[in-house]
Every structure is written in C-alpha cells, then in structure tokens.
Amino acid sequence: MRKEFGSNPWFYPLPVLIIGTYDENGKPDAMNAAWGGLYDTNLVELCLSAGHKTTKNILQKRAFTVSFADAENVAACDYVGIVSGNNTPDKMEKSGLTAEKSAVVDAPLFTQLPLTLECKYVHSTEEGNIIGEIVNISADERILGADGKIDMTKFRPISYEPVHNGYHVLGERVGTAFSDGMKLK
To answer: Which helix (H) or strand (E) holds 46?
Structure first.
C-alpha cells in the first residue's frame, strides 16, 4: 500500500549548497541553497529568487562558488540560510565561515568547507535560475583518499531532508555505478 502526499518539493537527496559571492565592495557573502544541481557536464543551475543578495552579487560580479556543506559545519551552513545578507551586515562574522579569494573566479572560497566548484556566470533562464560554468573544482587535502581523489567517508557531505527539515550525512558506499547493473543485462 502506498500513501499519497500530493505535489510537494520533495526530492531526495537534496545537496546543501553554500553559494559564495562578493558584493560591490568586495565583502564576502554566503547563502544556503538546497535547490540547485548539475545542468550539464560543466554547468550548474541555481534556483534563487531575484531578491537575494547572492543573486544581485552574481549578476554584478559574474562569478560565484558552490561549496558542499558537510557534517562538521552544519550550524554555520544552516545559519547562512536562515539570515539574509540584505539585513544582517555581520552575517559572515556570526557564521564563523572564513573566506579566502579564489585564484580562478571573483568569488570567495570558505576554508571550512572542503569541496568547492568555482563558477563563471553564463546566463539566467526564463524562470530566473542562474546558470554557471564550472571552471575549477578545488578540494581540501583532508578529504582526499590514498588515490588522491575525494573520499566520501572523509568528506561527509550533508543532504537536506524536506519532510522533517533534517540534515543527513551521505557517505556509505552501497554499490558501483556503471557496473552493478551489468549483471542484469
């Protein structure tokens, strides 16, 4: 038996994306955005409303970063989604996130968040969604495995669970993509 819930924005898993930008004065800002993801092989799409300071910053600077929230930084990542840079001038100081300038785009990297996509603004869709080109991916060595690649057990990214407003850690490996299904061929 299945229970019907009607139309809701329930999508699993929803990555917790921290969007980093600079304002017109070069002050860093961060925003928690659950609605976003890959748009193509080298593009991301962010569903942001026009009223966000982050949206204004992206359109002005033509650049942004997308960091993935992790279990270690839940409180800071949640905080930057609760308050707005439009009316909380000390948002970044209160969050505890530390910004450093990306060498690739005019946007901040947050030292506490170990995996970041550095993006150039491409365009906005008819719906107002932001499309950005991934021009670099930077990862802190603390989340790399012996093979020099990202190790999910060290990274521990979180996902937003919309029904109960929960954050959950991702990381348990349950299979191998493009391989496990081959036995059913």
So the answer is: strand 43-46
What are phi and psi for residue 27, nearest 5 degrees?
Answer: -85, 130
**Could you tell me the domains of the chain?**
14-184 (2.30.110.10)
Instruction: Give CA separation, 18 vs 45, 147, 174, 176, in Å.
Output: 13, 27, 27, 28
Kindly report whether the global pTM for this prediction surpasses the value 0.85: yes
Q: Which residues contact 126 (CB under 8 A, 6 or more apart)?
A: none
Contact (CB, 8 A) for 22 and 28:
yes
Rg (CA), the chain: 17
Q: How far is the C-alpha of 130 from the C-alpha of 113, rounded, in Å? A: 22
d(C-alpha 150, C-alpha 129), whole Å:
28
> Are 16 and 75 within 8 A, CB to CB?
no
Which of 71, 67, 142, 79 is closest to 107 using CA atoms? 67
Per-residue pLDDT tens, the chain, 185 aa: give them. Answer: 999 999 988 888 899 999 999 999 999 999 999 889 999 999 999 999 888 999 999 999 999 999 999 999 999 999 999 999 889 999 999 999 999 999 999 999 999 999 999 999 999 999 999 999 999 999 999 999 999 999 999 999 999 999 999 999 998 888 999 999 999 99
